[in-house]
Amino acid sequence: MSKYMSDALKYELAQEMGVADRIQGSDYGNLTSRECGNFVKLAIQRAERSML
């Protein structure tokens, strides 16, 4: 995923979701599957808004 999104953007999305405190560097392994799915959903929504 880092190939398409900057680390800063990923951290910003994690903050928006309220899970930034569980991210260690670029390791998102402490997130649940549901949180990862919601993370991707939020990233897609953000990309779609930027295209309009």
TrEMBL record:
- Single Gene Ontology MF annotation: double-stranded DNA binding
Keywords of the record = DNA-binding
| Any single biological process term in GO | DNA topological change
Record keyword DNA-binding present: yes
Superkingdom of the source species? Bacteria
Enumerate the Pfam families for this protein: SASP
InterPro entries this protein is in? SASP_alpha/beta-type, SASP_alpha/beta-type_CS, SASP_sf_alpha/beta
> Coiled coil among the record's keywords?
no
- Which PROSITE patterns does UniProt cross-reference here? SASP_1
Q: What does this protein do?
A: SASP are bound to spore DNA. They are double-stranded DNA-binding proteins that cause DNA to change to an a-like conformation. They protect the DNA backbone from chemical and enzymatic cleavage and are thus involved in dormant spore's high resistance to UV light.
Which family would the database say this protein is a member of? Belongs to the alpha/beta-type SASP family.
Question: What name does the UniProt record give this protein?
Answer: Small, acid-soluble spore protein, alpha/be
Organism of this sequence: Desulforamulus ruminis (strain ATCC 23193 / DSM 2154 / NCIMB 8452 / DL) (Desulfotomaculum ruminis)
